[in-house]
Amino acid sequence: MVHWGELGLILVHLGEFWVILVHWVELGFIMVHLGELGVTLVHWGELGVKMVSLGELGVIMVHWRELGVIMVHCSELGVIMVHRDEL
């Protein structure tokens, strides 16, 4: 395990999986990446943004709370779906 205190970066290797965890307290930013699975999760608290990327499947989901927007993109299917609560 590697930890850089100033950057809030933690790198953990769990057997088969490389897990990268970034927690930036001042910005309310959390990022988790599971290397072998190609999964990335980002939560940016101040902006109310959540993003999930499933790398191998080509799926990206973004939720932006303040705008009420949810966007899903699936590259293999060529599908983009956008939903806005306020419309």
Automatic annotation (TrEMBL):
Superkingdom of origin organism: Eukaryota
Protein name in UniProt: Uncharacterized protein
Species, as recorded: Dreissena polymorpha (Zebra mussel)
